[in-house]
Amino acid sequence: MLAVLGAVATPLAGCGSKRAAVLTDSVPVSQSKTTPAKTAESHAEATKPSAPAPPDFVIHTKGQSGDTVKLEGRFGPPLSVSETDANRAALESCQGADGREMMVRLDVTATVESSLSGHVALGFRVPYQNERSLSPPLFLMGYSEGSTCSAEGVVHSADLGTLEPHQPHNFTLWLVLPDVVTPHDPHPSAKSMARQEWLIEQPEVWMDNKRLAATGITGSRVDECKPLPKEDVPPPGYENREIALVAGTPRIIPPEQNGLCQ
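The chain above was modelled as a monomer; its predicted structure follows.
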């Protein structure tokens, strides 16, 4: 059930300080009307780290004993393999990764919001019904214990270890989208990929080997649900929502398919 691959992607470094130096040196001192104090202030502003992008989804979860965990997820744009820092050896082990795939990075932040520490794990799953995409996405996880790729319906676990209260923990994985590059579309755009409806289910959150119940999920990538007819009752066990990997993916689930929308 575990899928453990590759190394965790390293964060990107900023380049504001270099640009600030070039702009300052390009103006002769005799012509500059900027005071030293304002120059220092401008330099500090240029080198200030940028704020993180708003989450594409936020999930709040709670256990019967009062444990609560917040999960935030941020997707990167679809990229070719050469544009990523994903582990190449791990990628080559994935069935379906044959040079025609694109990749989407997912950065997840988990925070224990209750008062006690606990062992936290995440579960990722591909929906069973994904009619318009050619193949289900594959998961390239941030571990070095081996390499296993996904199949529909299989849960892929990410062990985050013991998390202290109110201390955010970051985890990175790559979603591999097979067969996106074709002779007819050698350079697929995000718009064309959005029409293929690449989806994953809402991630599961486990704490001390107990699955926490989702108490709320919001975000621009979360599906929206049309109401079921009053006589229809959603089947049990489908409390998860679906999340789009590519911006612009249709987010309305028709009534006949919204067992995930209770």
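The mean pLDDT is 75.
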